[in-house]
Design brief:
The chain has 323 residues and is an alpha+beta fold. It contains 10 helices and 13 strands. The strands form 3 sheets. Strands 1, 4, 5, 7, 8 and 9 form a 6-stranded mixed β-sheet that branches.
């Protein structure tokens, strides 16, 4: 190609030269021209400069965005860490408050305890069933022969042990002893948690099957005799409850099973206001049997009205021990 190209032609070729799309001969001619032509050299520099500035600008923008992204990521991580820390601290504070500051009332069911009385003196030796809890506070009150131990627990420490001894002297003849709202002693009779459950499950009418089942559960009847179906006789008095036992009992255990049926039947009659009789229908080695107990039988065995006795927790305990 002729190297004596005019500046106008060279400048027309510069865009293609810059983009690298001219052939070798043209590329050589443009290069040789701009080396000796100051004006075309400046034109080449000007035409090339915007792209360089553009690339630099883009690089700067990319670097800026990367920095912003890194800062945002860092901010998000720090925020997440702060939130986690707040939750951890809140949980730690909550646990500390619940374990060491808040004092939780102690129920009789929370304790293994031994009660001793000597005249009007009462001694309660208790151990928390949950070994992580200790006695935090004990207030003992007495009024008209009724002693109440109001106890509260906290997390066990050297100061708050899980075992304790509390005592009280009644000013008058000792009648009842409570732990919180639960009676544990009445007129010389220690009251078991079983008696408390049965007493609390008492109800006046046989017609409500759900409350009847609560009474059976309170004395753990299904645990001993197994599951059963029910039928109530409430059309006319005397009112009755029939249980159809699902178990087929072994002949060798029949005497024990029937003694427990009588025991549970008497207790149900005592604690359900208008219940007069309880019948069990069951099988022993496939042989069908039927056992019925009545209020008259229960009263005769106890020596007085079982329904009257069931009006207090101590009376229920005597029924359990007698029937």
């Amino acid at each position: 190609m002729n190297n004596n190209l005019s500046c106008d032609i060279i400048r027309d070729l510069l865009p293609s030269y810059i983009d690298g799309i001219v052939n070798d001969e043209t590329n050589k001619a443009v290069k040789e021209h701009v080396e000796v032509c100051e004006n075309c050299k400046k034109a080449l520099e000007l035409m090339s400069a915007p792209e360089e500035h553009k690339d630099l600008k883009e690089k700067r923008e990319i670097n800026f965005l990367k920095k912003v992204k890194k800062k945002n990521i860092k901010a998000v991580i720090l925020s997440a860490a702060a939130v986690v820390m707040v939750f951890v601290m809140a949980f730690a504070v909550k646990s500390y408050v619940e374990d060491y500051i808040i004092k939780v009332p102690i129920e009789a069911a929370d304790l293994e305890y031994e009660l001793k009385t000597d005249g009007n003196n009462v001694f309660l030796l208790g151990t928390m069933k949950d070994s992580s809890r200790g006695l935090a506070e004990a207030t003992v009150t007495e009024k008209n022969g009724v002693v109440t131990f109001n106890l509260k627990s906290t997390r066990v420490t050297a100061e708050h042990g899980s075992q304790f001894l509390e005592s009280c002297r009644a000013k008058t003849e000792l009648k009842q002893i409570y732990i919180g709202d639960t009676p544990i002693w009445e007129n010389g009779v220690a009251i078991s948690q079983e008696a408390v459950r049965i007493f609390e499950a008492r109800h006046p009418y046989i017609g409500d099957m759900s409350t009847n089942e609560n009474s059976a559960m309170a004395m753990e009847l299904p645990k001993t005799l197994g599951s059963f179906l029910n039928e109530l006789q409430t059309k006319t008095e005397p009112y009755g409850w029939t249980m159809f036992m699902k178990n087929d009992y072994d002949k060798n255990n029949a005497d024990y099973v029937e003694s427990r049926m009588r025991h549970y039947g008497y207790l149900l009659i005592a604690t359900i206001g208008n219940l007069d009789s309880v019948t069990f229908e069951y099988t022993v080695d496939g042989e069908k049997r039927k056992l019925t107990v009545t209020q008259k039988e229960a009263d005769a065995l106890y020596g007085s009205s079982v329904k009257k006795a069931a009006e207090t927790p101590g009376g229920v305990q005597k029924l359990i021990d007698t029937l």
